[in-house]
Amino acid sequence: MRIGIGYDLHRLVEGRPLILGGVRIPFEKGLDGHSDADALAHAVIDALLGAAGLGNIGRMFPDNDPQFKDADSLGLLEQAARAVGEKGYSVVNVDTNVIAQAPKLNSYLDQMRDNLAARLRVSPWQVSIKAKTNESVGPEGRGEAISVQAVALLDTAR
Ligand code: MG
Questions:
Q1: Is 73 exposed, middle or buried (0-12, 13-18, 19+ CB in 10 A)?
Q2: Taking the mean position of all CA atoms in its chain, how far away is CA 24?
Q3: Residue ranges per domain, the chain?
Q4: For the chain, N or C: smaller number of CB within 10 Å?
Q5: What is the 123 CA–ligand 1 centroid distance (Å)?
Q6: How far does the centroid of ligand 1 lie from the alpha carbon of residue 155, in Å?
Q7: Are 95 and 158 in contact (CB under 8 A)?
Q8: Contact predicate 24/74, CB 8 Å
């Protein structure tokens, strides 16, 4: 077994869509970034790559590379999962915290989980997404950013 940890934070800005776990969520602001800025997908990618000893998202998908401009991060997740599989690992489970003061995310969590599970080629019950506020303090609590924490457990047995 190998465990990996991932973290990501993107600033909330006007004029961008809010995309988390591949779900486009109606909101007055969206996450700023070179790709589609899907912080949930990014944190899961880093957890997977960390667990497999494959570096991090910036090494696999450089954010100064034009091919990743506005990239669909679920596609990047699929590529990362494939690399992890090619190294001989299978995903046991992924657990995440999405920290956002607003909008309320509860009604989108199942779709996000299903999207991630599909790209990871695992069952939905192997993926967990939990949403929480930041009690109105800090960058997330003031609505300046959304952050995500993720862990991934891999098994070498096939
Ligand atoms: Mg990111």
A1: buried
A2: 14
A3: 2-156
A4: C
A5: 25
A6: 26
A7: no
A8: no
Question: pTM for the whole thing?
Answer: 0.97
CATH number for the domain formed by residue range(s) 2-156: 3.30.1330.50
Between the CA of 157 and the centroid of ligand 1 the distance, in Å, is 30
Measured on CA atoms in the order 121, 7, 146, 77, is the torsion positive or negative? negative
Diameter of the chain by CA atoms? 46
Structure tokens at 98: 């999405």
CB within 5 A of ion ligand 1: which residues?
A: 8, 42
* 89-120 pLDDT, tens digit each: 999 999 999 999 999 999 999 999 999 999 99
CA 43 / ligand 1 centre spacing (Å):
7
Three-state DSSP state, 141? helix
